[in-house]
């Protein structure tokens, strides 16, 4: 059995030269489209951007988690005790910062550094709205904040399975927030 390409925009055999269409991993969609000066990756039709793989997504989560944990240690050092109010305050700060960054820019610092972005699943390549970002931020913040280690591990494993098996590489926070994570280079400039 030969390997099929990942979902994305490619030239389909039998189509006119220099045309592209969307491949969902099993079949072609839409009519062939001529290139208009932009690369094939930038010729992605609205809603069919290249989905981010597990590696960059886990790397972004690691960077974001590092930022949250460093902030936690600084606040803990200043406050002198690991009271629950400190943990709750940090969770809320993380939640609202992830919410704002996702709604405005479509990315957290980790995603920005690794050139991936959050978009809605309704065919737009712009950042998701406030409600989608809030749903996503709730799951995301719970997984990288201080809390029950077993719950975090189960969430990470669930996300790894989902990202590797879902055709749009969606995680738990993507499914809850109706979002997806795409490679920045696949979005229109």
Key terms:
189 residues, alpha+beta, two-stranded antiparallel ribbon, 5 strands
Walk me through what this model shows.
The protein has 6 helices and 5 strands; from the N terminus they run βββαααβαααβ. With 189 residues, it is α+β, with helices and mostly antiparallel strands. The protein has 2 domains: 1-45, no CATH class; 54-186, no CATH class. α2 (84-104) packs across α4. The longest helix is centred in the middle third of the chain and has 26 residues, at 54-79. The two termini are 37 Å apart.
Mean pLDDT level: 77
Shape descriptor: elongated
- Main sheet properties: 3 strands, antiparallel
Number of domains: 2
Alpha-beta classification? alpha+beta
Kindly state the number of beta strands. 5
Percent of residues in helical segments? Answer: 40-55%
Question: What is the string of helix and strand elements?
Answer: EEEHHHEHHHE
Spatial order of strands in the largest sheet: 1-2-3
| Helical segment count | 6
Measure the end-to-end span: 37 Å
Rg to the nearest angstrom? Answer: 19 Å
Strand content: 5-15%
Q: Poorly predicted ranges (pLDDT <50, ≥5 residues)?
A: 37-48
């Amino acid at each position: 059995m030969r390997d099929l390409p990942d979902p994305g925009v490619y030239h389909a055999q039998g189509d006119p030269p220099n045309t592209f269409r969307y491949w969902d991993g099993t079949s072609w969609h839409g009519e062939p489209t001529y290139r208009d000066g932009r690369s094939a990756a930038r010729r992605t039709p609205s809603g069919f951007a290249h989905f981010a793989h597990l590696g960059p997504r886990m790397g972004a989560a690691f960077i974001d988690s590092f930022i949250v944990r460093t902030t936690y240690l600084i606040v803990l050092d200043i406050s002198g005790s690991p009271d629950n109010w400190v943990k709750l305050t940090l969770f809320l700060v993380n939640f609202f910062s992830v919410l704002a960054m996702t709604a405005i820019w479509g990315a957290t610092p980790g995603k920005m550094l690794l050139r991936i972005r959050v978009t809605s699943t309704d065919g737009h390549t712009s950042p998701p709205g406030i409600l989608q970002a809030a749903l996503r931020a709730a799951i995301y913040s719970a997984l990288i904040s201080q809390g029950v280690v077993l719950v975090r591990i189960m969430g990470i494993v669930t996300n790894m399975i989902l990202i590797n098996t879902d055709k749009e590489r969606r995680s738990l926070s993507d499914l809850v927030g109706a979002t997806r994570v795409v490679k920045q280079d696949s979005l229109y400039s």
